[in-house]
Amino acid sequence: MPNNNGSRIIAISVASILSAGAAVAADAPASDSAELTEVVVTANKLNATKVLDTPASIQALSGDALQKDGAAEIMDIAGDIPGLSIQDLGPGDKKYVIRGINSTGASTTGVYYGEAVISGSNADDGGGFETDIRLYDLDRVEVLRGPQGTLYGASSMSGTIRFMPKLPNLSTVEGYGTAEYSNTSHTPKENYNFNGAVNLPIIDGVLAVRAVGWKLYNAGYVDQTRVGTVGLIKGVNDDDVGGARVAVRYQPFEELTIDANYTKQTEKSGGSSRWTPAGITAFNGGPIAPVQGCDLCNTDVTQSPWTDNLQVFGATVTYDTHHGTVTATSNQFNRTTGFTFDSTPILVSFDVPIPAETLEPRTRRVNSSELRYASQLDLPVNFVIGGYREHEKQDLAVEVIKTNDFGLVNGPFSSANSDDALGSPNGNTFFGRTDSRTTTQWAGFGEVTWKATDALTAIAGIRYFTETLNGVQTQTHPFGGFPPDAPNLVPIPDPQQTFNKITWKENISYKFSDAVLAYETISTGFRSGGLNAVSEPFEPIPKAYAPDSLTNFEAGLKGRLFNNSLEYQVDGYFIRWDNIQVQETTADAAFVYLGNAGRAHVKGVEFELTARPMEYLTATLAGSYQDAFLVEGASADQYALNNTLGRTGDDIPNVPKMQFNIGLNYTRPISGDWEGLGAVDVTYRDSVDAYFASNKDFNLVLKPYTLVNLRLGVINGPWTVAAFARNITDKRAEVSAINSTQDPHALLTVRPRTVGITVTRKF
Questions:
Q1: pLDDT, tens digit, for every residue of 646-698?
Q2: pLDDT in tens, 624-660
Q3: Dihedrals phi, psi of 550, to nearest 5 degrees
Q4: What are the residue ranges of helices labelled H in 172-300?
Q5: Is 564 helix (H, G, I), strand (E, B) or coil?
Q6: Of 208, 357, 585, 672, which sits most exposed with the smallest number of CB within 10 A?
Q7: Considering only CA atoms, which of 217, 257, 258, 255 is closest in space to residue 238?
Q8: CB distance 116 to 312 below 8 Å
Q9: What is the span of the domain harbouring residue 129?
Q10: How many domains does the chain have?
Q11: Cβ atoms 165, 259 nearer than 8 A
């Protein structure tokens, strides 16, 4: 039965707001400027600029706005960002798609947390793609659309997302605390969220510390219906998150600033967010009986708990000279994921009807360092020049183990034949392997900005990139156990691979007035290559796959109208994507691997409008149209071997043609220090294909959806109390889908209707 506490939460929230409002009279309006506040960004690494003065397709969301809206994670703001779609496979497992650039392999979007590179990578299972660091006490989120290959390098081929934490304030004691309580429909428990920050100057003007912490729990809304002999487990996909960040700033004299930071977050979930809709019969075989899907029910036979532990730490030193700024930064990103999934369907397909779970623990350690110089010359020409190094080590284990009556593994993984689940009556282990990889990148980059006149500016940039890849793999337990004459398989090193790439960019902008800027850009981007982990003796698999690349042609217009009460950005682009990284299959269909094949084109328009149509009311409209399709798909022979490959003319999966967000915020004085606020936002996304449309066996068409969120509250000085309703229509928004032999027909949706109250106190 659904939890009915939602109506009580709304009643309590509205009653508290109305009682607070009743204590004052609504007859004291205050003056309110019609001008809009614009966020300052540092994306060009040369200087700080306002968004509308930056000749690029860039969106910036201020941390204060995120806090006011109660945004905790990327899914809370995804609808506000034109050209961005997210494949959401559950907690800690997101994939960002900007401008339709979406395929198998490493991330096509560069992701930064401050100066640290945290871009996702999941070319070889292991779960997890982009990490879900919560968005608390951020200064801003910058979204750069289009290739950022010159300044941000590999994996920024479609764009870059920068999460920029607030830095310590050297002279002010400040902070905040927030408590939130809510209820989600179809859940057995309530949700809670506590987060806060404090800034403490230690030596005024010289040394300060800023600390942030968060603890939140979101109840699960998916019920698992046939786990072992237990049967029903309610709310398996709960999300339990705790984290903290500490930053230190030291400025011994005006020219020198040293920043150090440490962030840690742990996240765990009890099960999968995938659910099988009504009308779908889940797999069956042998003693495993078929079962029908239903609303928000998962039909896996085993439980699939998930853990995600991450650390980000580093230091940045900046030194301002009379002619420029030197920046040196080194950062470390460590992530350990405990990914599990039900292996029973694939075993059933091989006539082995035994419940089993696959465990895929994986660790990633990414060290990134950069040294750059940004000039500040009193000349028409200024520049950024720098060098970059990145070293990454990944270790993955795959362990397939029999499960017990509770849907959990029956025992630890073992490489011994005596524990083989097929060959021994008491055995538990089906299969095991390990895969270790290291990648080292070096790059040199530079951009030159020439202000030819007061109105005309030209930018040119280039980056040279080289990477070396190494790997080793070991089969720790083959299916059926080791042959008698080979009790152990020795590690197999992958041949070392080296790839080089040059990316470039040109940009010309013209400022018709202080309120109108036009620009054009041609830019290139690429994604790193990688190693293939499996080798087949009868048909050798390619040892590696190469980088893919694209060229972006773009023009845009941005500015202000009506005494700065209306801001707009609009751009159009055409992308040519070559040598795409795709999943391929051997001739005997026994193994899949990554290769390079095909070409795609993407055409699109993006727009953003922010206006004050009347006093106290702010209206926003942001959206995009994009047409992403293959111009050279799989040949008839390739498609006959692997019908998951796209054919010429197929749309690229998970890319909506149209998406937009409309927001209204009305905040006005009531009396004295009291203000009232009301806000509504509506997000629409078009239908998409989960796979290539030519993949008749597995493609699912995800329906279009519209989501509505409401917020109502009062503000009194440092206090804000607000009631909210997210996904108020309780829409099953089909944001992503999984459908394969191993993972049969399953959908993923946004959180059902959630209502609650939040209280924030600033100081």
A1: 899 999 988 999 999 999 999 999 988 899 999 999 999 999 998 888 888 88
A2: 999 999 999 888 877 777 777 889 999 998 899 999 9
A3: -150, 160
A4: none
A5: coil
A6: 672
A7: 217
A8: yes
A9: 5-762
A10: 1
A11: no
